[in-house]
Structure formats: structure tokens, C-alpha cells
Amino acid sequence: MIVDDHPVVRDGLRGMFDHVGDIEVVAEAADGFQALAMARRARPHVALMDLRMPGLDGIGTIERLRTDHPQIKVIVLTTYDTDADVTRAMAAGVAGYLLKDAPREELHRAVRTAAAGGAVLAPSVASALISRPAAQLPSPRELEVLRLVARGAANKEIARTLLISETTVKTHLKHVFAKLGVETRAAAVVVAMERGLL
Fold first, then answer.
1. Residue 135 maps to a domain
2. Which UniProt keywords apply (predicted)?
3. Are 148 and 115 part of one and the same domain?
4. Closest Cα to residue 198, out of 121, 142, 132, 136?
């Protein structure tokens, strides 16, 4: 699903996926409210989401989608890579953050990666996340939890694998987020990989 308030951008993006055999554009929306309606109807696996839109903006839409349709992976596609925008998007639980100047192949790869449960970040966004000062490194136990997160395991599965409670898993993740200076699982995995922790 493509969500952008500019018709020209939507047309351009649709064109980028026209002859890609394994990716189909099933819906388009010009704002957040349309996106929520289209999500109900079209059931997309991935949404490419602009941040600045009239009515319900990108972040508001992402938060609603995460609640109503948690199975939809959202990739922010924007012209803005300010710290505030990136932080808000990551906190809302996006699977990726790309800039609109991303090449066609990178967009295709990003959609496939997000659909498969992976995380995608534009190089400038990844650099900004990585360059944040780290207070300290995660402990070996916290890294064990993070390794399982990187493999796509949910908290319940992690608890079962490591023979700890779900509450303990959440506590470990809270500490990991704080130590890596991130706010989501996807961002934690990306930053940990870039820093050579995983």
C-alpha cells in the first residue's frame, strides 16, 4: 500500500513496482484516514508511508495501524531524516525508514525485507542512530535476548528458550533499548549489528 498526499509521488512509486513479479501494489491512499480504510479493505503486507500529510499524519497513521493491523509492516518513505522524525517513527514501531531518493532496487529490497520481518534503514538514518553515544554495552544475557529478537522471536518464545519469565524478557529489552539509545526492536537489532554486537 502506498500512502502519500502527492498524486505524482504515488504514480511514480506505483510505476517502480509495475513489473516486479513478487510485489503488487494493492492500495493507495492520500492521507492517514484513507490509509486506515484501505488497510481494512486491501489487507496489504507492507505500507510505504509518508510522514507529512494533511488530516492524520504519518506517525498517527502508523500508531493506528500498529493497533488495528499489527501484521502490516510499515516503511516510512520521506524526504526528512531529522533526529526527531526518525525517533518518532522508530518509537511508533516502523519496520523501516527510507528517503525518497532511494534507488528503485533499494525500495524493492526494503519491501521484501519488511514483508519477511526484517528491518530496513537508509544509510544516513542508520549513521545517526549509531553515532548516538552508548552509555554502556548490553550484558551477555541481554545480547542473548537481542539475538533471538533478531531471529524474529516474540517475547513468549524468548522466555521459553532462555527459561526466564516474559517480564524478565521485557526488562532485558528495556535495558538494551536504553543502552543502545533506541526505542524499538527493529532499531535495536540494526544498531547492534552495525556496532558488531550481533
1. no
2. DNA-binding, Phosphoprotein, Transcription, Transcription regulation
3. no
4. 142
* Cβ pair 48, 75 in contact under 8 A: yes
Give the chain's domain count.
Answer: 2
- Spatial separation of the C-alpha atoms in residues 142 and 149, rounded to whole Å: 11
Same domain, 125 and 146: no
Spatial CA neighbour of 195 closest among 179, 173, 171, 174: 179
* CB neighbour class for 66 (10 Å; exposed up to 12, middle 13-18, buried from 19): middle
| Per-residue pLDDT tens digits for 89-101 | 877 888 888 888 8
Of 75, 161, 155, 152, the C-alpha closest to 121 is 75
In 3D space, the residue among 56, 4, 54 whose CA is nearest the CA of residue 27 turns out to be 4
Assess contact for 64 and 36: CB atoms under 8 A. yes
My answer on whether 18 and 106 are in the same domain is yes
Shared-domain flag, residues 7 and 27:
yes
Count, residues in the chain: 198
Write the DSSP symbol of residue 102.
-
First to last CA, the chain: 32
pLDDT in tens, 150-183: 888 899 999 999 999 999 999 999 999 988 888 8
Say if 60 falls within a structural domain. yes
Q: What is the pLDDT of residue 161?
A: 94
DSSP string, 157-193: HHHHHHT--HHHHHHHHHHHHHHHT-SSHHHHHHHHH
Please report the pLDDT score of residue 80 as a whole number: 72
